[in-house]
Structure of Winged helix-turn-helix transcriptional regulator:
Amino acid sequence: MLSRLEREIELTARHIAILRLVVREGPIGIIKLSELSGCPQHKVRYSLRVLEQKNLIKPSSQGAVATPKAERFVKTLPRKIKELSEKLESL
């Protein structure tokens, strides 16, 4: 039962790590993201697709760039993580 939650947390952590790199380094391509994150290119590509669908990044000819929504998301992330952590601890 908890293995699914654990997989979702790992996947979300990767998406967030990729997003933070795009915010900090953008515009940035898949190869550079793979090198900096240590994730294989196919996983980086998947994370970029998910982030684009959520309107957190957009593609450009130089690579992925963060949207204004992404910067707001990253700023509120510590608070959201704390809230989720408290919910889990209360189980």
Remarks:
- Residues 2-25 form the longest helix (24 residues).
- Residues 2-89 form a domain with the Arc Repressor Mutant, subunit A fold (CATH 1.10.10.10).
- The two ends are 14 Å apart (CA to CA).
